[in-house]
Amino acid sequence: MSSSKAAGPGPGRSRQTQIFVDGLGGTRPLVPVAPERLQEAARRKLDGAAFAYLAGGAGAERTMRANLEAFSAVKLLPRRLRGSAARDLSVDLFGHTSPAPVLLAPLGVLELAHPEADLAVGRAAAALGVPFIFSSQASEPMERVAAAMDAVQAGAPRWFQLYWGTDEQVTRSFVRRAEAIGAQAIVLTLDTTLLGWRPRDLDLGHLPFLRGQGLAQYLTDEHFRAGLAGVTLPAASPRPSPALLRTAASLAAHGRKFGLSLPQMRAAAAHFTASYTRPDLQWDDLSRLREWTSLPIVLKGILHPDDAREAARRGMDGLIVSNHGGRQIDGEVGSLTMLPRVVEAAGDLPVLLDSGVRTGADVAKALTLGARAVLLGRPYAYGLALAAEAGVTEVLRNIVAEFDLTLGLLGAHSARDLGPDHLA
Ligand SMILES: Cc1cc2nc3c(=O)[nH]c(=O)nc-3n(C[C@H](O)[C@H](O)[C@H](O)COP(=O)(O)O)c2cc1C
Ligand SMILES: O=C(O)C(=O)c1ccccc1
């Protein structure tokens, strides 16, 4: 995704020009360009429970709104007569050059958006050369997604997001598997040591994992599977309701995919719920992860500057400023609001940001405030819902094209040029 392909002159047409030229022949973009219309189109397409899970946040969703408001509050300040015809969008991430300062955030249970789930996202990411962070809660095992990406572009960049569970054998096994599939970094998520209070899901009584969804990393893990034998289950209901029958059908379907019986799947859902996270994880535990792997370790969910300093002291390699898209604590601060202080505290550690990035101008704002790159979350899930791989590709291309134009209009030559000079 060089700048010449994303926008501006050069061998390929800019995305913007392409859209207008296509419009002459009556062809419209596959997915709406504006973020609100993108979300609305996905809402219309998806069933209610799936959309609730993807779009919903914690509590009254105040933090979800605060994330967007934090972007609104930052105002860019352009410079004149110093722009360049082609911009360099690339950034360096742990020794690898990325074509644009965007990564695909780890999103669990992408099968809720589209049956091709992580495979479609992986192919889109690989074609553009943008890193895809595989979720611990993915719908497809990391080995399959890596292979699908390699089929598009050998060695296409992938990272792995880790939830630290109570069975450390499983946690360690995930890290080993991530190394084996060529992950370039381990992202340890720190803000979901407990599942947030999410009214949209609570009102529907809907948690996908209990139906066997979003468990692909676990169901394909020998250590997790070894733990299933010890799980005791309540007796199955003798006269199951239609809803319970649908749950059993979903569990059985996921079991078939991974060679597990229905009773094993019931055990797996229970075992996962009891073990996927550790509310009592401590800073000292990180020393073990540091010993397990020499891959860069990136802590996701950092908001407090003192936590950034602690991470640096503990030998971590990078930080992601994030509040999990407002899905965890209702009332916590908007993610972008904390970025400058975290960047200052982080010293040499690269700082990424997510939660509320919706447009290319948002990407520019995060970079002017010191982020090396941003993670895109919900918008690509909506693209996936609307048009599978092609939908993800379009969402990414649109955001990167707007970022490139914003860079040019600000009078910046490269993504690395953005800084305080471009803030009002
Ligand atoms: C449906 C959904 C599932 C998610 N699953 C995970 C996950 O498995 N692991 C993780 O670290 N973050 C997860 N996140 C958080 C994202 O990585 C990211 O922090 C968040 O989506 C950013 O907010 P935004 O999408 O509103 O910009 C999830 C977010 C959503 C919306
Ligand atoms: O949905 C999420 O945001 C998420 O990351 C998660 C992960 C594990 C269990 C429940 C939710």
From TrEMBL:
Keywords in alphabetical order: Oxidoreductase
FMN hydroxy acid dehydrogenase domain residues: 27-424
InterPro entries recorded: Aldolase_TIM (IPR013785), Alpha-hydoxy_acid_DH_FMN (IPR012133), FMN-dep_DH (IPR000262), FMN_HAD (IPR037396), FMN_hydac_DH_AS (IPR008259)
Family: Belongs to the FMN-dependent alpha-hydroxy acid dehydrogenase family.
Record protein name field: L-lactate 2-monooxygenase
Organism: Deinococcus aerolatus
PROSITE patterns per UniProt: FMN_HYDROXY_ACID_DH_1, FMN_HYDROXY_ACID_DH_2
Domain of life: Bacteria
Pfam families linked to this entry: FMN_dh
Cofactor(s) this protein requires: FMN
Entry-linked SUPFAM superfamilies: FMN-linked oxidoreductases (SSF51395)
PANTHER family to which the protein is assigned, alphabetical: FMN-DEPENDENT ALPHA-HYDROXY ACID DEHYDROGENASE PB1A11.03, S -2-HYDROXY-ACID OXIDASE-RELATED
